[in-house]
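Issue 218. Parser rejects a valid record. Input:
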Amino acid sequence: MKKVIHTEHAPKAVGPYSQAIETNGTLYISGQIPIDPATGKIVEGGIKEQTEQVMKNIGAILKAAGYNFTDVVKSTCLLSDMDNFVPMNEVYGKYYPENPPARAAYGVVRLPLGVLVEIETIAAR
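Output the parser choked on:
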């Protein structure tokens, strides 16, 4: 059975998708960008500030679905500039101090709304 997950503590979808879908004990979180859900605007600053907001958004969705960061099994990180890989990793790593999930990271030409980073996440119980 498919369950749509939504929380006001993460940005509203900017297109025809759900914040997350849970099915058969697996949570699929749509790519999160650095929008502050309180303001609806992209956070100011560089890659570190944007990654921090993305991770906060992911955390809010995990919590709304009854999961946490230790349940994350896979992440996909999209970067508008691979020169931002190291500073993105510094922030990302704080959320996974032990047994980090499997991950892929890609450099892409552009991301929605001109942001520097987008991260999609899969969690399982």
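Fixed in the parser; the record now loads. Residues 62 and 68 are 5 Å apart (CA to CA).
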